[in-house]
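Allow me, if you will, to draw on your knowledge of protein folds for a short while. A protein sequence and the structure tokens that stand for its backbone fold form the material at issue. I would ask you to consider whether the tokens describe a fold that such a sequence might reasonably adopt. Thank you for your consideration; the sequence and its tokens are set out here:
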Amino acid sequence: MAAVQTWSLLLTFLMLLSCAAQQAPMATITASENTVREEEITRFEALTVASVPVMPALDIGVVLFDSDVEQEDVSSVASVRRLESKLLAGLLRDALVASNQWGAVRLLPSLSPLVPVAIETHIVHSDGRDLILDIWATDALGERWFQQRLIHRQSGGEGSSGDFAQVFNVISNRLLGSWANRSLDERASLLAAADIKYAQQLAPDAFEGYLIHDEERLILSRLPAQDDPMLLRVMRIKNQEYLFCDAIDEQYVVLAERIGPTYEMWRESAVEQAEWLERYQVRVADREANTGDGAFARMQSSYAAYRSYRIQEQALTELAEALDGESRPLVINAVGRAVTLEGTLETQYDSWRQLLKEIYMLEQGEAL
């Protein structure tokens, strides 16, 4: 009779768990086509830290991760993923900065000729425990430095969330290998070409012929004089665009402070929930009776893990939806006047770049 009651309680618990999963704002962790296998996980690497950057110092742009959700999607899942795309991009930027191997490392809302090398990332899968990212780096001449799939599985245990940021060490080290393998002339040529590429998007006719196409990449054919007045104006406009990136960095710091702790707790709870599901599946596969004095205690423990996960998931969802709904205007000073930018970060960035181009053309006309 006791065994029947125990199984009845277990069945009731599983039915409640199933109902709760259907009502939850985000999907319960289950097996999928993106299920991570142990042998596929990207191994941690120690971050290679330099006393001084490899010279000449290379500026890096970290494009906000592609969240793989439509902008029109207002679901809670989409809100969390969009928030995660910013948070993870910030963690990658932090790893690059901590290596002390680079010049300025900036967050970019979208791909831009502002930097000599840009890192782009697509979020393939993210469920709190398993994270799959496709990451690639491309320079201003169109050369792909590397492309890598990064797979991370969050481990359980107290303090395990501290390992998460280290997952991006491998990207900094990989980038360093590509840069260090280039000669000094190749490095200097890339930095000069990046300036020309930026100038061409402002004034394509004025800087035509400095870069020529060779199959799938560009080659630097010649350079303007160092005191070329048009190039000097371009560099001044470029410095104005850096102001926007500085504002993005400030937003990231605020974002990390507000959501970082909740995000970490959600990942820890996701690990507990996923491990419980795996243990349950093993018990079912082995057809273990799981009856006896400890059955109810095991159910209580399982429900506690599940409840913890749902609480953290709900907290992250509510916070994500609140922040995703915010449209924080940016006020930036440009050539002596304050400019207010509104909309998404991508929209604000596009507006700012268009404004800078108009300022450049206006100044160019006045100079003529």
In short: The first helix runs from residue 2 to 23. The mean pLDDT is 78. The radius of gyration is 25 Å. The beta strands are 60-63, 105-108, 117-126, 130-139, 144-153, 211-214, 217-220, 330-334, 337-341.
